[in-house]
Amino acid sequence: MAISIVRVILYVQEISKVARFYERYFGLKPLPSEGKGWQELASDAGGCVIALHQASRAQKSGAAMKIVFGVKDVRAFVADCGRDGLKFGPIHEVGELLFANVKDPAGNSIQISNRGM
User: Which CATH number is correct for 7-113, 1.10.3720.10, 3.30.420.40, 3.30.70.1070, 3.10.180.10?
Assistant: First the structure.
């Protein structure tokens, strides 16, 4: 039986702020909303959906999780985002593999990587 990842749920305090971040820097588009406290975002290319779920007041945003976005040119992507105000950490190189990390406004970890691109 084949299993694929269809959705990653992020519990966040400010859904609209985090949604704008993923739209601006990663080109995700909001899907029709199923109701208050929930917003799904997807790429035009398909793949996994990121769902933003309203966190309870006591719940900490940015729990242990990382979303990995595949990009062909990690250095160019980091440079483009930097010009637009998003500062990634250092670019790591392991042979042909390059990756860099950043956090979204809710503190969730994000990585860009050329793995499989």
Answer: 3.10.180.10
